[in-house]
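TEACHING EXERCISE
Course module: macromolecular assemblies
Task: Read the component lines below, then compare them to the predicted structure of the full complex.
Student: A.B.
Group: 4
Components provided:
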Amino acid sequence: MSDTLVVAGTYLISYGLILGYAVYLHLRRRRAQR
Amino acid sequence: MTRARVLMGLAFAAVGVGLWFALTAPPDALQGEYSRLLGIHPPSMWLAFLAFGVTAFGSIMWLVKKTDRWDRLAAASVEVGVIFTAIGLFTGMVWGQAVWGTPWDWQDPRLMSTAVMFFVYLGYIALRNAIDDPTVRARRAAILGVIAVVQVPLVYFSVNLFRTLHQTQSIRPDGSTIPDEMLLAMFVNMAAFTILYIALMVARIDVAKSESALAPESALAGEAVRPPRLDEVEDV
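Instructor-supplied answer key:
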């Protein structure tokens, strides 16, 4: 696997985790306010 | 538009700028493309240290003031800190595999102390979830929050205190060992991640406020079944 792909994948997984947490917070807040 | 949404939009824009800096910095002569991980690994760990420091501050303030807002601050900061510690560990392992030839070394003090810190703060979250009474939960979590923060300087200075595979600090009082373009990318990402931290904190504290507004005054069954005390019983 090329180095560029590994680095890109690492960024993608890390940012995906952060984005996932932000979405989770948004959904949890919406459920609490309903 | 809510404050949390504005902040989150700002944070994602800042992270986008940081990503651009990380991806356009020249690759390292020896590490090649892997040097781009400087744009995510050190900023993640910086954020974890900041988050756990804020937790300790919130914990101390709760122990002094006993108000919910400090407990909410401490709890929110741990969650964000744990996520960024996980990212720091993961990106470090990818970098280690490429540069050291191994993703993990069980005898390395920096790696092991970071892993222990990660699990201790996971334990903090588990402790909070195991206690129903809000005051007892806040007190016990605050005590752990104050004790656990000793790990932050231990992790940071572990590279100086012990013999490690991990390199010592790249930025020292007498200068930096990192080329300027890479250093700039790292600092831009640190700033972007700090904005992201604030945005996630505001969002997490909003969730805690919304959920505490839903919670009944006392959710404890024990309150309802408390046996009468002798002085409360009238003679018949």
